[in-house]
Amino acid sequence: MVQFRWGFEYYSGEDFGVNNYPMDNEIIDRLKQFLIKNKYIPESFWLSRNIEVGNDLGLFGENALKFIEVFGKEFNVDVSNFMAGEYVEHEGTHLFTGIFNRFFKVKLNSTKVLNIGDLEKAVIAGKLDESVLKFKKFESEYNGLTFKIEEYLADVGSYLYVYKGEKCTHDYLQNTILDCKEFAFEEFKVPMDSWMEIQS
Q1: In this structure, are residues 79 and 4 in contact, taking their beta carbons and an 8 Å threshold?
Q2: What pLDDT, in 10s, does the model give residues 44-59?
Q3: Long-range residue pairs from 195-198, CB within 8 A, at least 24 positions apart, any chain
Q4: What is the DSSP string of 134-195?
Q5: pTM of the entire predicted model
């Protein structure tokens, strides 16, 4: 079955860099329409790939597991090998312990994050499991900003995200991780040797 932790986040247009949001992408648009149809978000919400399902959308425990199942059916994504226990946030009580223990591979103290970008990758790959989710990530802080690079599917590329505080202001799609680092250096003067690989 599934285990997860995911996220969504919405801002008014003034919160975003002029080049990036809302994202014009067929799969992202389909995900947004799916969320609206199932009343997870209002139509006015704007969606970005770095939105966390659990923390930003507020789906935890049983509700989160149900979401993954509905998502799999809607997009024809195989979620049978999704390690839900690695991603699903427990709700702080033992109400769902029995459900988790009976139906899922359980690890209540989840440390991994599932976001909209992960769901997009799952739609492309037709499955949601570690082979889709396990990609390299890097982070750097420079000049008051936080920069994150996330490796994506080979036929898509890698994304560079720029944060001011907790808000993502820009994202840029590049061919490779190295291209992201070079772009960050050219556009924001982020030193090439400042990047550190992080565990998702």
Answers
A1: no
A2: 887 888 788 888 888 8
A3: 195/138, 195/139, 195/140, 195/149, 196/138, 196/139, 196/140, 197/136, 197/137, 197/138, 198/137, 198/138, 198/139
A4: ---EEEEEETTEEEEEEE--TTT-EEEEEEETTEEEEEEEESSHHHHHHHHHHHH---GGG-
A5: 0.64
Which pLDDT tens digit goes with each residue over 121-136?
899 889 999 888 888 8
Tell me which DSSP letter residue 89 carries: P
Place of tokens 């082979």: 131
Q: Which stretch of DSSP H or E encloses residue 35?
A: helix 26-37
The string of pLDDT tens digits covering residues 14-68 is 333 323 333 447 888 999 999 999 988 888 887 888 788 888 888 888 888 899 9
Q: What is the pLDDT of residue 14?
A: 34
Q: Pick from 61, 122, 129, 66: which is nearest to 95 by CA?
A: 61
**Contact of 136 with 154, CB cutoff 8 Å:** no
Q: Where are the domains of the chain?
A: 1-134, 135-200
Tokens encoding 61: 């425990």
Which strand ranges, in their side-by-side order, compose the sheet holding 167-174? 167-174, 158-164, 145-151, 137-142, 196-198
- What's the Rg (C-alpha) of the chain? 17
